[in-house]
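User: I'll paste a sequence; please echo it back and then give the predicted structure.

Assistant: Echoing your sequence first, then the prediction.
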Amino acid sequence: MDDLKVFTGNANRPLAEKICQYLGIPLGDAVVGRFSDGEISVEFRENVRGKDVYVIQPTSIPCNEHLMELCIMLDALKRASVRCATAVVTYYAYARQDRKTAPRTPISAKLVADLLTTAGANRMITMDLHTGQIQGFFNIPVDHLYAAPVTLEYIRENFTGDVVVVSPDAGGVERARAFAKRLNTSLAIIDKRRDAAGIKAMTLIGNVWGK
């Protein structure tokens, strides 16, 4: 463990602390703050040269702040000559923008992949991507983990009786169906109709009455 270091930004420090507690190592000493004009400041206060470094930083709300923190941390680690910098991004911002939905729209999920790689990530660990194909946006190794085993265990331990698994939209049907099959329960689907202003109407397909 001497060559292993774990650091975190401001996105989810409790998660990083629990990971370090499980590994039996201290959380790395890094300060991620703000300059007076709002710019992000990063300083690693221990030697990381030649180390395997993991940065725990989900890009959750506010996603732009947390994404920029991660990029600057990766750049600092690259310039500090780490052996390998792994970005642990349990929530991947912009994942829903994984394809062009109109002639002049971006593919922001690909842009984020390029940003992280250019910033200095040598490896990526993420969870439950919106679509698995996002892994192909990276030119570095990506470990795509799934929360299903833990989620299923939690449901079995905390919910009894007649349970129904609901997919919030058509895109989530495959995942919801897999959950329903493993829980041996029924499935329902919410059919969303959208316009330019957002969700226009929703229809529930399936029976959730009293469940």
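DSSP finds five helices and ten strands in the chain. The chain has a mean pLDDT of 92.
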